[in-house]
Each structure stands twice: as C-alpha cells, then as structure tokens.
Amino acid sequence: MLIRQRIIQCIKVFITTVLVVIPLYSQAEVTITDSQGSKTLPHYAQRVVVLNWDLAEQILELGVVPVGMPDIAGYREWVAQPAVPNEVQDIGTRVEPNYEKIASLKPDVIIIASPQADLQSQLAKIAPVLFYQTFSASHDNAQAALDNFRYLAGVVNKQDVAEQKLVEMKSKIQALKSRLLLAYGGDLPAVTTMRFASTTSVFLYGGNSMAEYALAQLGIKPALDLPATQWGIVQKRISDLHTITDGTVLYFEPFDQEAALSRSRLWTSMPFVRANRVNSVAPSWSYGGAMSIKYTAEAITESLLALAPTQANDVNQ
Amino acid sequence: MTVLAFMLALFLSLQLQTDMAITKQYALMTGLEPLEFVEVNFVYATLPRLVIAILVGASLGLVGSLMQQLTQNPLLSPLTFGTSSGAWLALVLAAVFSPDLGVESNTMFALVGALSAMALVLLITGINNLSGLPVILAGMAVNLLLGAFATAVILLNDQYAKNLFIWGAGDLAQNGWDWVQWLTPRMCVGLVILAVAPRVLTLMRIGQQGATARGLSIMPQFLLLLLLGVWLVSSAITAVGVIGFVGLLTPNIARYLGARTARDELFYSLLLGALFLVLTDALAVWLSQFTLDFIPSGTAAAVIGAPALIWFSRSAVKAQDQMVFRLPQGISRLNGRVFITILVSLVLSVALSSVFVMQDSAWAFAWPDAFSWSIRWPRILTSLAAGAGLAVAGTILQRLIHNPLASPDILGISAGAIFALVFASMFWGITIFEAGPLVAFVGAMGALVIILFLGKKHDYSPPKLILTGIALTALIEAFVQFALARGNDDVYGILAWLAGSSYRVSAEQAVILAVSVMLLLLLAFSLSRWLTLISAGREMAFSRGLNGSAAFVLLLCLVALLVAFVTANMGPVAFIGLLAPHMAAMLGAKSVKQQLLVSALLGGFLVQFSDWLGQVILYPAQLAAGILVSLIGGSYFIFLLIKGRLNT
C-alpha cells in the first residue's frame, strides 16, 4: 500500500515537474534560421543591433526599432526609406563597427551581413550573432532577400507582419502588372535597367540584381541577357548598349549629366532612344532587402507608364 | 620610321573597333553623314576616342620629355612630380564638398591641385636640385601624403565619391567630340613648347652654371616652361583621368632609339607618346571583349608601362646620387632626459588606450572589463609592434641607400601585399578581410623576389631599387583604381584595408606580429656593426672584411620582412618608416644602435597614439591609424624638409 502510494506520489511529482518545466522551456527557447543554418536563442530578440543597411531596412520594415545600427546619417541620405527613428544609436561604420559601443547597448542579438562576416567570433562575445547573406554569386539574391525577411521575422517574433507584408507586396506588384498590361495593351516590352557611371560608361543591372527580379515579377523580360554576378551589376561602355534593338532602357536617377546626354549623337542614335523607349527612374537603393523589390517595382512601373502608348492617366480614369 | 609605325597603329586601332569596310570609314571621315548606328558609333565614339588618345598621349610624351630635359633627370614625369595625386585629391574634395559644380570648375580644381602638389615638391627640393633621385623621392612623399588624404575623405563620404572612381582609373572612352573640342585649343600650348623649348634646353645641356656664365639667365624661361607643361598635363588629366607611365616612359624610349638633340627628343617623345597610348588603348578595347566588365585605358597603360619602364631605364641612372636633403639637425647628442621623455610618453599612451572610456557626450577613465580589454590589448600590441617594426625598417633602409627620403614604402613591398589582396578578392570572390594576412604576406614576399631578381644585375644600386619600387607601386595603384571602378559594395572593404587599421587584428595575430617584429628587431641590433660600416660607404665596408653585397641583401631582406609582417596584419602604414628615423636623429640618436632603439620607441609611440586618437575623434566611427599617421606624420615630415632646406 505504502509503496503503491509512494509510487503514485513519485509519478505525480514527476508529471507536475514535466508539466511545469516543459512549457517553460518551450516558451523560452526559440529556434531560428540564418544563412549558416538553424540556431537557438533563449527568447525572441527585443534589443537588436544590426550591422548592415539592407538588414536594418528589413528590421525596420517589420516594425521593430533596432537599438543600434551603423552610419545612420549615411542611411538617411542613401537608403532613406523606411525612416530611422531618432532613438536608434549609431554604432560607427559598416566596415568597422564599434565593439564597445555595441556591448554597451546590451543587445539580445547582433545581426550581420557579409561585410562583417569575419567579425563574427569577436561579436559572439557580446551576444549571439546571426549572419544573413543577401548578395552572393552562388545563390539567387532576390530569393535570399525574401527568405532572409522571413528568417529575420522569426528572430523578432513578427512572422505575421512578414507574411502580411509579403502578401501585400505580391498583390501590389500584381496590381502594378495589370496597370502595365492595360497601358501596353497586353504586350509588355523587354526592359533593361541601368545606372550611369559617366557619359561613356554604365552599370547594367543583370542576372541576380533586385531590379531584374522586380522586372520578372512584373512579367517583363530583360532586353539584354547578362550573366548572374555577385552584386548583379556589370560595367559596360555606352556603345555596347546599341545591341538593344527593340527593348526599352530605364536608368536610375540621380544622374546629373542628362543635358550632355540629350546633345550626344551617339546616345540619340541608339535604337531605343530613336524609338523613344527610354526613361529615367526615381532613385532607389540598389543593394537593399526584400521590400526594396517592391519600391523598385513601383519606381519602374511609374517610369514605364510614362512611356506607354496609352497614357497612364487614361487607364486610371 | 616612327611616323610610319604611328600611322600603322592608327589604322590597326580603327580596324579593331569596327567591322565596316575601309572605304566606308574613309567616306565617313571625309564628311559622309552617318545614318546607321555602327556609322554613328564610328564617327562619335571610335574616332574621337582615337583623337583623344593621340592628343593626350602626345602631350604626356611631350611634357615628360620637357621635364626630363629641363631637370636632366630621366626619372621625372608628371607621375613622379606629384601632379596626378594633387589633381585627384582636389577632385575628390570637390566631389564631396560641393557635388553640384560643373565640369569647368572641376577643371580648375584639378589644375590648382596639380600645381600645388608640384609647388610642394619644388619647395622640398629647391629649384636647383632637380637632376637626381631626391626629387623623385620628394614626389613620392607628396604622392603618399595626398593619396592618404584622398583615401580618408573617400572613406568618410563613400557614396559621394563613387562616380569619381572611373575617372581615377583613367578612361579614354568618348561620347561625341565635346572633349576633343575642349582639349584641342589647350593643346596649342604644346606647339609653343615645341617652338621655344629646344633653344632653352640646348643651353641647359651646357649646365646651368655654364649658361649663366655666358650671361644667360635661364631661370625665368625654365619656370615658364615648367608651368606650361603642368598646365598641359592638368588639362589632359581633367579630360581623361589619371594615365600614368606615358610621360615617364616615352622620353626614355626616344633616347634609347637614338634621339640626340633636344628638338629630336621632344618631337619623338611626342610621337611615341601618342603611339604608346593608341596601342595600349587598343589593347584595353580588345581585352574588354573577353571580360564581363570593361577594362579602363589607364589600367592597360600601367600593365604595359611598368615592365617597359624597368626595361628601358636600365641605363637611365648611373652615378650614386648625392644627398641634398637637409633636415633640421636638432640636438647633437642623445641625453637621458630625452630618452626618458619618450619612454614616459609611450607608457602614458598605452595607459590612455587601456583606461579611457568614450561615451556619446562625455568621457571617463575606468578599468576595462574583460570584454573591453580583449578588444583593446590586441590593438595596443599591434600598433606598438607595427610602429616599432616600420621605424626600424626605415632606419635600416635609409642607411643602406644613403638617402634620408628612402622609405620602406618605396621598395614596393607593401604594394605587393596590396596587389595580392585586391587580386584575390576580385578574382576569387572572397572578401578582402577573409583573404587575410597570409595572402598579403605571400604578395609582399613575391615583390621582394622581384626586387632582388631585378636588382641583382645592377649590384643592388639604390636608383634601380627605387625605380623598380616606383614602377611596381604605380602599376598596383592603377590596378586598385580598376578594382574601385567596378562600382559594387566590396569597394569599401578594399578602401578600409588600404587605410591601415588595427581593428581586425585578432589576439593570435597580434601576438605573432609582436613576436616576429621583436625577433627581427633583435636581429637588426645584432647586425648594427654591418650597418655602421655600410653607412660609411661600401668600399669602406669591403676593406674591413665585410662582404658588402651579401650584407646588403641580408639587411634588405630584413627590411622587407618587417614591412611584410606589418602590412599583412594591419594594411599599409606610410610615413612612419620615413619620419621616426629622422626624429630619432634630431633628438640626438646619431649612432646606428641609438637610432635603431630611439626610432623603434618613437615609431611604436606614434602609431599607438594615432590608433587611440583615431578611435576617439570620430566616435563611434573610427579613423584608421594608418590614415592618421600619414596625415599628421606626413605633413610634419614635409614641413621639416621645407624648413631644413630654407635654413641652409
């Protein structure tokens, strides 16, 4: 009897222990993914320090304010959106972030990209380090950006926000696509995007660039086949553009020598310039994260609508 | 003969860039209105590019020959005179601080920058001392200082400077005839030079004293010609960017081919300059067909120019050059108080780096916690070892080469390390920091092998060593500019490494560096007797039973090893090897042993203090110690040189 009671008591204690401890564990430990595989964190991250602009942009998109990020003045000038709140602390440059400043912010996690890859062991002394690589020759940059967006959401417990934003982006791009189809009468032109380096050379956005991915989502083929590279850009002389015979060319602002360009015989005799299939695109950060696909698609659509045979305004009315 | 080769080159260059029939090309050149794109491209891109190549090549060749004859110095050129780095710095400043300026004001900036750099070199050497190695070394020092300044500005304002990188790499591509029209009237100055210069130059060959004795005052004409030359070069630089080697190389080729009189040399240099640039540019165009990114003309010119320069100038410099630099002499004997002051400064600087705590709006002193200390001590150790190592390397080299302006940078050792790292990061797709110290060390050793191999034929004569170093450095500079011009985000990693920072040195690396430098320093001290003998002259050393050549090579390897260890871990740190030995001498350390010891302490202190300062002044951002040392040390050094000259 006694023994039986004892056994039952033991079982009771055991069960209660398990019942109490297991949920504690499952609430506490979080499994997340980064470019190095899956890792566990003691809990969802609240104090985030992020060391590269494209990742900072995505954390901000998810509605989380990081406690620290690099070169905030530079971010405000070149990346601009989403805006950085004033309480975010500057932790130095992207290439040489300030260790002691980061430590003083007592972060839950430190999120890095390839420029900081070699700092990982040092940073790990401060807090768990998560590494997200967006730009690499060995994978699809845009897909990596989308994956990373979801993984990052998993770190800060904003999975629902991420899914919602991605769905929004998809439907936004669908809407842009149908506007374009309408304006172009169902027949979208092939498009190549670029940035001017000078009046004689250009950076073409080719395979593995966010711009080309955005175009593909809009249902647009590239006007020039360019191989995939790590950063998605290829530098070419302006004469090389003449092979774009029946495609459209869009160039990203800012470019301060448009006047010189319009005088140039070489430029004005390009097939796409003669046929008036060229336009500028509002500035957008080339090396951004998932949501930069949306911003790029919006800017490109805006520019293409201005070139459309049926004016965009007529379509809207 | 040359004219014929020139015509042939023009013809070949054109055929390379177009598939149109020759009759069609001729018709287009004589006024046929272009319709098709290929025709427009021929008339508005290919032809103006060729004309620009001719104009720029000719003017660089002409000015190179003018400068070399004016100074009777076969190594002088716009490149070695500091003009291009002056123009580059001025344009970087313009792009960052007032980006909306037009082309015309940029031109003025470039001109002012080029002239100021040249004025600085002239101030250092004095107008009468342009015929030897010293002016080249002074130009090198000015190049280093202005280059460090430009890198610092770019690093702190990276995005603004992006569009300058193409210009920095030097490209001849044209879009229309605008630049040709802009450049042509400015090239008329070249005709003035061709008309006036031969008479003056012929007189100069008698020697300045001789000419003055005959009642001719050469100085005004000399200065006027020099000014016209720089003006011509500045215009060319503004139009197409930095293209090295043409001005340095072509007069040497002209003399090699037998141009004897002043007029012949000017004329042939002009022709050869045009020929050289047309050919290298054709090479750039041809190679660009096979590469994904195009190759800038300046890169091609450097790749051909550097080996050609070493080849053609085998007989360029003969006599061992006289030392003409006078630095302020300072105290005549080392006393205890000075020594103790240096030691105390060193200890204070280390202490400051250990306990100083920077916050956003205030600062404080506190013992570092375990983490802070683990971040700080490797940097302290690295900067001390780097400073001491480079200072000792500089002391040895200056005594070996008998020239107070010989810095370890000019041997090309650190250039070899830079080349290896940039090359590895460009072609194997790894980031420059992953490539790390090993690659840099291999590059530095490769450069040493080249230097020893090329130097052996000439018994390691100092001018040859310096010439090889200059060629290697300029080649690598062109290559780095090419890497920068590719427009991706790797650029800032490369620039940050070039700045010379202790930030990424790990604890193990710091210990390895410190131990290696320590061992090499001990070796240097134990060899100080050799150095004393060699300082007194090689004959002297030989008569005392020392095998001069073997000792020389061994000491040179010691210098190279020191530079290689430091550069591999910290990146290039300029001027310490130049400045520390002089400061040591000024403080009274005149014997070899004293100078080695005091300069090591001074070097360690200077780099360590700069490293701390760089972490504090822009907090939370950091400025690399290498940049700060170059800016502060370089300015002070050039100030010393000018002061020393004006005092005599």
Secondary-structure topology with pairs:
The complex is a heterodimer of chains A (317) and B (648).
Chain A: H1 2-28, E1 30-34, E2 37-41, E3 48-50, H2 53-61, E4 68-69, H3 72-78, E5 89-90, H4 99-104, E6 109-112, H5 120-123, E7 129-131, H6 141-155, H7 159-183, E8 191-196, E9 201-205, H8 210-217, E10 233-237, E11 248-252, H9 258-263, H10 265-268, H11 271-274, E12 278-281, H12 290-307, H13 312-316
Parallel strand pairs in A: 3-6, 4-5, 6-7, 8-11, 11-12
Antiparallel strand pairs in A: 1-2, 8-9, 9-10
Chain B: H1 2-17, H2 22-29, H3 37-71, H4 83-97, H5 103-125, H6 133-156, H7 164-169, H8 178-205, H9 208-213, H10 219-240, H11 246-256, H12 262-288, H13 297-312, H14 336-355, E1 356-358, E2 363-365, H15 370-401, H16 413-427, H17 432-456, H18 462-484, H19 491-498, H20 507-526, H21 528-535, H22 538-543, H23 548-570, H24 576-586, H25 592-616, H26 625-647
Antiparallel strand pairs in B: 1-2
Helix pairs in contact in B: 1-3, 1-12, 3-8, 3-10, 3-11, 3-12, 4-5, 4-6, 5-6, 5-10, 5-26, 6-26, 8-10, 8-12, 11-12, 11-13, 12-13, 13-18, 14-25, 15-20, 15-21, 15-23, 15-24, 15-25, 16-17, 16-18, 16-23, 17-18, 17-23, 20-23, 24-25, 25-26
Key structural traits:
heterodimer, A: 317 residues, alpha/beta, Rossmann fold, three-stranded parallel beta sheet, 13 helices, 15% strand, B: 648 residues, mainly alpha, ABC transporter involved in vitamin B12 uptake, BtuC, 26 helices, globular
Q: What does the model show?
A:
The complex is a heterodimer of chains A (317) and B (648). By secondary structure, chain A is of the alpha/beta class. Chain A has two domains: 25-157, Rossmann fold (3-Layer(aba) Sandwich), CATH 3.40.50.1980; 184-316, Rossmann fold, CATH 3.40.50. Helix content of chain A is 44%, strand content 15%. Chain A is built from 13 helices and twelve strands. Chain A has a five-stranded mixed β-sheet. A three-stranded parallel β-sheet of chain A has the order 3-6-7. In chain A, strands 1-2 form a two-stranded antiparallel sheet. In chain A, a hairpin with a 2-residue loop joins strand 1 and strand 2. In chain A, helix 6 runs antiparallel to helix 7 (159-183), helix 7 (159-183) runs parallel beside helix 12 and helix 8 crosses helix 12. Chain A is elongated and about 100 Å long. The model of chain B is unreliable at 318-324 (pLDDT under 50). Chain B is globular, with a radius of gyration of 25 Å. In chain B, helix 15 runs parallel beside helix 20 and helix 16 packs across helix 17 (432-456). Among the domains of chain B are: 47-312, Orthogonal Bundle (ABC transporter involved in vitamin B12 uptake, BtuC), CATH 1.10.3470; 398-574, ABC transporter involved in vitamin B12 uptake, BtuC (Orthogonal Bundle). Chain B is built from 26 helices and two strands. Chain B is mainly α. In chain B, 73% of the residues lie in helices and 1% in strands.
